[in-house]
């Protein structure tokens, strides 16, 4: 597997963008009918919620791929935590402040209870409600994964014990579901982080020539599961996470090995859209709601709902890119004034 200093895996970046757009399409299909009427084309994206599954597997890949050499090196723990905190929180706090402002305008003081606001800002999971930015429930799972990986950086041995315990809790929860914090910890979504980390390990240690075929097989499997079995998987969380997680792992592994071998190139917009994917994800439900209300006021109800749906989704993606360009990038520049240099000889997807 050929690796070049400072190289970024653009295919992985583009995968993040595709996953974010799938989620936008999914939420558009759920949110916009109240404004536009029945949207026929939305039925093809009812599996868009599986973009979250791809996100989780991709997160496991990126963290292991970028920080593998930090494992069992406590001196790198501060750097790792700084990178994670400055990656997740600044733009998330900006969008959360927007959500708070909208709730204040509605005088929704029940939702703005002090503890809920604090928990939302810090991404502390709550048993009975999502964060103020609803889609940030996934970030709570991300932060748990980052915390567990930080244990590996502090000590490989302790990290192995921590993962073994976590795996046991998840497995036990399949048979005896719990509530509260334990329900959160035992979520089957967490197996997808492990799938992604496995893909990262294999991409370095076991690159194969059939990587393009594996990526294609993963995409095909993901689509078949989504288009044919998504409703059934909604009733079986573990099966859904397993099938979407495994197909995502094939895609990620195949693309990473294929591109690192120097045989795959992407246009410049692919990297940009991937970099903007986090902002797209955070802001899209707000933008979809505003687009739907605007369409309801300007267009006769039931007029070209499919077209308006696709236009609203496009507006949400463009709005997310604008948020990235004018808010997230400046915030990143402020919080990462001393960017770390890439490790020699390591191809690095963007953190």
Structure summary:
The protein is an all-alpha fold. It has helices at residues 10-31, 33-36, 51-67, 77-105, 114-122, 137-154, 156-175, 180-185, 191-205, 211-233, 237-260, 268-275, 277-298, 305-335. It is globular and about 60 Å long.
Summarize the structure in words.
- There is one protein chain.
- By secondary structure, the chain is mostly helical.
- It has one domain.
- The chain is built from 14 helices and no strands.
- Helix 1 (10-31) packs antiparallel against helix 3 (51-67) and helix 4 (77-105) packs antiparallel against helix 5.
- It is globular and about 60 Å long.
- Mean pLDDT is 92; it is low at 1-6 and 339-348.
Keywords for this structure?
351 residues, mainly alpha, 14 helices, 71% helix, globular, disordered N terminus
Mean pLDDT: 92
The overall number of domains is: 1
Order of secondary-structure elements: HHHHHHHHHHHHHH
Seen as an oligomer or otherwise, the chain set is single chain
Percentage of residues in strands: under 5%
Main sheet characteristics: none
Question: Structural class, judged by helices and strands?
Answer: mainly alpha
Counting DSSP E segments of at least 2 residues, the number of strands comes to 0
Shape call: globular
End-to-end CA span: 21 Å
Measured as a percent range, the helix fraction is over 70%
Poorly predicted spans: 1-6, 339-348
Count of runs of 4 or more consecutive helical residues: 14
């Amino acid at each position: 597997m050929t690796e070049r200093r400072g190289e970024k895996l653009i295919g992985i970046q583009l995968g993040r963008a595709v996953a974010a757009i799938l989620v936008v399409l999914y939420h558009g299909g759920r949110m916009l009918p109240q404004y536009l009427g029945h949207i026929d084309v939305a039925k093809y994206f009812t599996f868009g919620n599986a973009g979250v599954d791809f996100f989780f597997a991709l997160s496991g890949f990126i963290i292991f791929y970028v920080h593998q050499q930090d494992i069992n090196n406590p001196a790198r723990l501060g750097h790792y935590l700084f990178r994670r905190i400055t990656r997740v929180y600044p733009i998330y706090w900006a969008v959360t402040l927007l959500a708070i402002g909208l709730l204040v305008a509605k005088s929704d003081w029940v939702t703005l209870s002090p503890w809920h606001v604090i928990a939302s800002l810090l991404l502390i999971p709550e048993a009975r409600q999502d964060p103020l930015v609803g889609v940030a429930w996934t970030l709570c799972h991300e932060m748990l994964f980052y915390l567990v990986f930080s244990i590996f950086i502090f000590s490989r041995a302790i990290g192995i014990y921590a993962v073994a315990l976590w795996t046991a809790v998840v497995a036990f929860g399949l048979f005896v579901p719990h509530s509260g914090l334990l329900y959160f910890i035992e979520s089957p979504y967490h197996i997808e982080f492990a799938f992604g980390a496995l893909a990262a390990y294999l991409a370095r240690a076991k690159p194969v020539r059939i990587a393009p075929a594996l990526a294609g097989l993963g995409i095909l499997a993901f689509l078949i599961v989504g288009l044919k079995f998504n409703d059934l998987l909604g009733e079986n969380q573990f099966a859904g996470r397993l099938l979407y997680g495994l197909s995502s792992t094939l895609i990620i592994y195949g693309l990473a090995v294929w591109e690192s071998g120097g045989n795959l190139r992407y246009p410049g917009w692919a990297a940009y859209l991937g970099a903007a994917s986090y902002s797209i994800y955070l802001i899209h439900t707000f933008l979809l709601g505003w687009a739907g209300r605007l369409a309801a006021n300007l267009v006769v109800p039931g007029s070209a709902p499919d077209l308006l749906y696709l236009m609203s989704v496009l507006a949400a993606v463009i709005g997310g890119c604008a948020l990235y360009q004018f808010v997230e990038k400046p915030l990143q520049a402020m919080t990462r004034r001393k960017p770390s240099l890439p490790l020699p000889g390591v191809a690095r997807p963007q953190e």
